[in-house]
Design goal:
The chain is an alpha+beta fold. The chain has a domain of 28 residues. It has two helices and two strands. It has a two-stranded antiparallel ribbon with strand order 1-2. It starts with a helix and ends with a strand. The mean pLDDT is 78.
Length: 80
């Protein structure tokens, strides 16, 4: 009887994890993969560009990408 109760509790815990979105480790892996996509800016950057911070490419407007500079990740135009 005690083993059946432990199995039931384990099953309920797994169902609860699924309802909350799964394991946190898999979500963290997705974030790491998104961060790896951000590369160093190929164009020359100036200090005023640091006012446009970003974390992902989706944070930037159209025709802009998120890239890494001396002041962190910023949105930079791909057209210029």
């Amino acid at each position: 009887m005690p083993t059946q109760a432990l199995l039931l509790i384990l099953l309920l815990c797994l169902l609860l994890l699924q309802a909350q979105g799964g394991y946190h480790k898999s979500k963290r892996m997705q974030e790491i993969q998104l961060i790896k996509e951000i590369k160093v800016c190929e164009k020359h950057t100036t200090i005023y560009m640091c006012r446009r911070p970003c974390e992902y490419h989706q944070d930037c407007q159209a025709n802009n990408i998120c890239c890494s500079t001396f002041c962190g990740n910023i949105c930079m135009s791909t057209l210029q």
